[in-house]
Amino acid sequence: xxxxxxxxxxxxxxxxxxxxxxxxxxxxxxxxxxxxxxxxxxxxxxxxxxxxxxxxxxxxxxxxxxxxxxxxxxxxxxxxxxxxxxxxxxxxxxxxxxxxxxxxxxxx
Length: 108
Fold this sequence. Notes:
Elements: E1 17-18, E2 21-22, H1 24-46, H2 49-73, H3 75-107
Helix pairs in contact: 1-2, 2-3
């Protein structure tokens, strides 16, 4: 095949990207949009268009800005590590409490 360039695919990117979000943050952004739409619809039906816009749109932008900040500073992997790290002290304290109970039981 003269004159045609051939390209070899070496790696396929299977991550989902939505407006700069990746990993778990994509799903958080999609859930935020879904909840924002449902919230807007409910407030619109109950009160009217102006309160719906004044209540739901700023909240949606704040949530998306927070997710964007997390994406820029931590990234999806760092966000997952931070979530695990928050759970870790509770596990360590439970383990320490169990260890103290075992020691008390052995000393009796």
